[in-house]
Amino acid sequence: MSAPDWLNSGDNSWQLVAATLVGVQSVPGLVILYGSIVKKKWAVNSAFMALYAFATVLICWSGWGFRMAFGDLMVPFWGRPDLSALDQKYLVGQGFTGLYPAATLVYFQFVFAAITLILIAGALLGRMNFKAWMMFVPLWLTFSYTIGAFSVWSPKGFLFKAGVMDFAGGFVIHLSSGVAGFTAAYWVGPRMAKDRERFPPNNILLTLAGAGLLWMGWTGFNGGAPYAANLDASIAIINTHVCTAASLLVWLSLDMLFFGKPSVIGAVQGMITGLVCITPAAGLVQGWAAMVMGILSGSIPWFTMMVLHKKIKLLKKVDDTLAVFHTHAVAGSLGGILTAIFADPSLNHLFFGDDPRYIGLVYAFKDGRAAAGFRQMGMQFAGIAFIVAINVTITTAICLLIRLLVPLRLSDEEMMIGDDAIHGEDAYAVWGDGETYENSIHGLGNISVAKADEMI
């Protein structure tokens, strides 16, 4: 079949590459990061939570999720579910935006939905019942993620129409995952006291490898947001990396200043907050603003994590394993607010078209349009409030529903053992100092000859 007149092969190619880069952030990126940043006994379970979510979201997204997030209007904040995304006639037609088929958009938006669920898992590592997680993923995607995506990103969504600016997911993905992860962690309950006190990474080098895939994959995360291989995509990409590098260095410097040592895990946290903070603004701000955002994203979430977390009762009570609330909810909100301050009208024009509403406060004062700048600030706070409200409410309802069917939290006995109790598998063949598999409790050394014969 010949290519239709509306198809731009360059844009289509870039969008597919960008989507794959985002997919690589999850598989293998976060699979590796989660599997290595936790205690050895949780490596398999943590990595598998990410892999399971990726596969499950794809099935649900193709079946009904995409249309609920970007399809026909059902209510002002939600699309009507249908099976169009499985129909070839629909998939080869032009998508709702961009010069490429709907199939490309389904794929591109899928990887964003998938990584959101995987980020939520980061708050729940080390104690959530895997059966509960299996239920949580499709329910949360269906009843929470699709609402946020439709409201903020769909041209028919009420927050999109109101003028909320979220270039690539500061609200839809990061604020949502941070709030939902924190809420779910509250209902699931904490890890064992011993794990909360000491939870060392089992492989820092692999943690860095996973973090590197996350960082480089963000090229597609923000670079694909304009839905075209255009000037705005290039600006978004360079801003993303500038902000991230600045954030990492600021976080590292604060760790050295207050704790005396350059922390590798701290540097990874600073990298993540920089990536998250620039996401709602990546193609809307100039390079100097991206640098400022990096400085703030390396310091404000550091302060909330290292200082406020120890003083606020609720934060201390909830066991957020990888501090997803600070790295995603705080950094995502910060990025959304800074977008309203630094968004350049000339760059807004590239992304939003000829709409004078989109203007950062800095430029609004400069142009004598302070009211427009304050209006934009108000819209950003309204977007934050909506995303927080739906995620607290719906995540709570989902957890309470699942709790009626299976326990949300693993038993103490299972948490003592970890992977082998849950999956019957372990990450490494060497069990301890000089202790090999054959001589461990899992090997044949402690099994009777008769029993061994039966197994053979």
Account of the protein in words:
With 456 residues, the protein is mainly alpha-helical. It folds into two domains: 9-414, Ammonium transporter fold; 426-455, no CATH class. The chain has 21 helices and two strands. It has helices spanning 9-37, 43-70, 88-91, 102-121, 130-153, 158-162, 170-188, 193-197, 204-223, 231-259, 264-278, 287-297, 300-306, 313-317, 324-342, 345-352, 361-366, 370-405, 412-417, 419-423, 449-455, and strands at residues 73-75, 78-79. A hairpin with a 2-residue loop joins strand 1 and strand 2 (78-79). Helix 1 (9-37) packs antiparallel against helix 2 and helix 5 (130-153) runs antiparallel to helix 18 (370-405). The model is unreliable at 439-456 (pLDDT under 50).
Q: State the distance separating the first and last CA atoms.
A: 56 Å
Question: Which architecture of the largest domain per CATH?
Answer: Orthogonal Bundle
Tell me the count of domains: 2
Tell me the Rg in angstroms. Answer: 23 Å
What is the ordering of alpha helices and beta strands? HHEEHHHHHHHHHHHHHHHHHHH
CATH superfamily label of the largest domain: Ammonium transporter AmtB like domains
Q: Which percent range fits the helix content?
A: 55-70%
Low-confidence stretches: 439-456
Q: Count of DSSP E strands?
A: 2
Q: Main β-sheet: number of strands, strand sense, barrel status?
A: 2 strands, antiparallel
Question: Can you identify the CATH class of the largest domain?
Answer: Mainly Alpha
Main location: membrane
Keywords: Ammonia transport, Membrane, Transmembrane, Transmembrane helix, Transport
Family: Belongs to the ammonia transporter channel (TC 1.A.11.2) family.
Domain Ammonium transporter AmtB-like: 14-428
